[in-house]
Each structure stands twice: as structure tokens, then as C-alpha cells.
Amino acid sequence: MSFSATSYETVVDGSPIILDGDTLTLYHGDTSGPSEVIHQSHPTSFESSQETTHYFRSLALILNNSCNLACKYCYAEQGGYDMPGRRMSPQTAHMGIDRLIGSVRQNRGESLTVGFFGGEPILSFDLIEDTLDYARKQVPRDIRTTYLLTTNGTALREDHVKTLEENAVRTTLSIDGNQAAHDSNRVFANGRGSYAQTVRAIHLLQGRVPIQARITVSSGNVDIQDSITSILAIGLRRITFAVDSGISDADFETYLRSLDCFFVKYASDIKNGTYYDVTNITQPMLSIAMHKKKRAHCNAGVAYLALSADGQFYRCHRFTGHKEQSLGRSSSVTGVTIRASRQERLNNLGESAASRSTDCAACPFVYLCGGICFHEALLSTGSEFKTIPRECRHRRTIYQGVVRLLGGMTSQQRRDWLLSLRQLWTNENREEVISR
Ligand code: SF4
Ligand code: SF4
Q1: Contact, 31 vs 9, CB < 8 A?
Q2: Cβ-proximal residues to 150 (8 Å cutoff; 6+ apart), any chain
Q3: Greatest Cα-to-Cα distance within the chain, rounded to the nearest angstrom
Q4: Does residue 74 sit within a domain?
Q5: Rounded to the nearest whole angstrom, what is the distance from the C-alpha of residue 317 to the centroid of ligand 2?
Q6: From the CB of 436, is ligand 2 less than 6 Å away?
């Protein structure tokens, strides 16, 4: 038995476990004498959020550059990017939808995704309604449409929720944990915390649209175990988290220790039959379970584009603050521009980890991770294809935890866990969501 150069060995409950990084297969034993495969492709079928589709089929509409909050860690400068107060016109939104439909039709696709972003998109709810109406009339019946909304929730009203429910809009809502953690950063312009309004929004949405909670780990909010526990207590079952790049080194170390503690709790919950989806952990678990390679961290600039409030296409929502990164105006951006952006991305990947041209070539987790966020890498290193040591450490902590977690489960526990995730997704009628 031979392993690729990129394999990872660890010990779980006294037994060696190895992940073959190129095939995403887990084994008992070590590289000198592996024994049985402890996890094989599972018969349960899952839709994967990690498939790379090589044509444009997901669009984020940046409806406005305004926000009613003044979160201390906001990368978009209170939603303004470099165009504070700007609002998208219905004509621009329609143009974006037309381009999206055109791309999906041309490529004989069966589905498309429209995301509502800001600023704070709820502040442009009239445009959300107009766009839903326009898309309903324009998208051909044989193309499935998924709507996404990313919001702070604080301006949400009952009549908004009715529209979101009617259109099954999958909603990602930012909440950082308990009241103290949340209010330490997520404040209104007058400095008042927004926790009460956020929880009110969750209660309005619960049971009516699929909700994902999004935690930003930052100074003042470093205990990820506590944050997740607090959000579970509100009744949410799908959570994702990201680390603020401005977090201090000391706080980052505290956070990593808390993440390790959370892995112990998550393993214990799974073994006790308490299931919930922490996507940063369940996605790499599924990748191993299904032997699905994640070839890139996200689909930005390939299947996923963002349209800024002033009508320019960008590779993703976070690039919209950078004029020099524009792919062109909605009326002039061409398939050629998008293909060039895509080719640049694909040139840096490879059929095996070692054949990549990025810093990730020697990493055993390259097909769980895909590489760094292009936007973060560009800001931190000046190159989209370089890694950021602290971010790599963060991800490796997660992947190492995932290998230990799967390696410590019995086959029955893995089967029950997979079925529970499928049930959770079926209940939400989840379809493929572009990884962002
Ligand atoms: S970004 Fe870092 S953790 Fe991810 S594959 Fe590259 S080297 Fe590995
Ligand atoms: S991971 Fe980075 S590059 Fe990809 S969509 Fe998100 S912000 Fe954009």
C-alpha cells in the first residue's frame, strides 16, 4: 500500500490514523503498515457545496452600500465599501439577472442562485421584492432558482418575513454568541448593542425559512464553544464561523484552544445523538466521507460573481470595494473576461496536491481546504495565490480535529451522523449552495 506524499498521521485513542491527502481516505495504522479502511464512500447521496461548476451560475447583488449597524470589525466600512450610501437601481438588478439566466441557459444548466447582499439588504427590501418578481417572470421553468439573503436581521419586519417565506429565501444571519460577545462588536452607530434585535429577527424567521447563523470570532468574542452553545440554545441548528483578520495574536491563541475544546464537545454530542451542523467542520467531514475533493476554496470568479450597486461585476462580494478588480460594467462584461479570470484560477490548481502551483502543494489538507480566500490573500500578501500562515494554522487545526473526530467514531456513529445531516438538509429543502 502506498500513500501520496501528502498524508497526515495522528493518534486517536491510542491507535494510529492516517489520512491520504490525495484520495481523502482514512486508514487505521501508519504508512508502514496500514490496515483496514475505516471510512469508505457512503451510499447515502448528498448534494455537495464543493463541486466546481465552470460557468457563471450564482450572483450576489450588492443592493446598497448602507448599513444600520456600525460593527467594529466590519471589512466594508459599515457597508459603504468605497461608495457609501449608493443604492442599486432595479434596472441594474434586472441586468444582472438577465446575464445570469443567459449564462445558465448557454451552458444547459439546471439551477441558478441569486444572493441578496449589502450593506444591509433589508434596507432595500423594495428592491428584493422587485428582483424576486422579475426573476419569477424571467427564469425559465426548467431552471431551479435558489435565493440567499445575508443580513444582520435588525431591521427585519413581519411583512418582510412573509415575502422571504413565500420565496424560500435561505437566510444567513450574523450573531456572535451570547449577548456580551455579540454586543462587544455588533453595535448601532450610537454604540448600543444589537443582540436583542438580532434574536427578535431569529424568532420571526424560525420555522419559516432555513436559517444559518454566522459567527465572527474577534477580540471580545474568542470562545467559539461558548458562542456555538449560546446559538444552539436559541434553537438554530446550522452555524458557520469566520475569524476576523484583525484579531490579536493573543486572542487568536485563546480562540484556537477554545476550538480544540469544542471538538471534544462536538464529538461527544454526535456520539450521544445530538446533531447540528457546524459547516466549517461538517464540510471537511463530508469531503472525507464522500471522497469529494475540494479543488478551490470557493467559486469566486468562476461560478460566482457579484454585481456592485453601481453595476460593475466583481469576482465576489468582497472584491466590490476594489475598483481595480472590476471585471467590467454589467452592460459590457463579457464571457471572455470571466473566462480569463477563471483560467487564472484553474492554472493554479492541479490534478494532485503536488501539481498545484500554489503554496499549498505540500499540504496534506489541500483537498479539504482548497487554498486560501483569494480576497484575504490579496490583501495580506499582494498575491491571490499565496497562503497566510495564521489562516493556514487555523484551517489545519480544523482539519486535524476532523480527522480525529471521524477516526474516533464507530461506523454506526458515522452512519447515524450522515443520516442526521441529510435529514436536517431535507427538512430545509436544501439545494446546492455556492461556497463563499
Ligand atoms: S491554505 Fe493552508 S491549510 Fe489550506 S491547503 Fe493551503 S497550505 Fe493547506
Ligand atoms: S472565500 Fe474569499 S474570494 Fe471566495 S467568495 Fe469568499 S471572500 Fe470571495
Answers
A1: yes
A2: 115, 116, 117, 118, 121, 171, 172, 174, 214
A3: 64
A4: yes
A5: 8
A6: yes
Cα separation, 295 vs 10, in Å, equals 24
pLDDT tens sequence across 300-341: 888 899 999 999 999 899 998 788 888 877 555 555 556 666
> Looking at ligand 1, which residue's alpha carbon is closest to its atom 1?
371
Residues 6+ apart with CB under 8 A from 65: 76, 79, 80, 81, 83, 84, 85, 86, 87, 118, 119, 309
pLDDT of residue 333: 57
What is the per-residue burial (b if ≥16 Cβ within 10 Å, else e) of 204-226? bbeeebbbbbbbbbbbbbbbbbb
pLDDT category, 45, cuts 50, 70, 90? very low
How many structural domains comprise the chain?
1
pLDDT of residue 360: 82
| Ligand 2 and 378: CB distance under 6 A | no
The pTM is what? 0.90
Q: Check pocket membership of 316 for ligand 2, CB cut-off 6 A.
A: yes
Task: Write down the pLDDT at residue 17.
Answer: 92
**Full residue range of the structural domain in which residue 182 is found:** 58-342
Task: Judge whether 383 lies within some domain.
Answer: no
Distance CA 320, CA 387 (A): 22
Burial class, 136, CB count within 10 angstroms (exposed 0-12 / middle 13-18 / buried 19+): exposed
C-alpha 281 – ligand 2 centre gap (Å): 18
Q: What is the mean pLDDT of the chain?
A: 86
Where residue 178 sits, what CATH number does that domain have?
A: 3.20.20.70
Q: Is residue 373 part of a domain?
A: no
Q: Which amino acid is at 158?
A: E
Contact call for residues 62 and 317 (beta carbons, < 8 A) = yes
CA-CA distance, 402 to 396, in Å (whole number)? 10
352, part of any domain: no
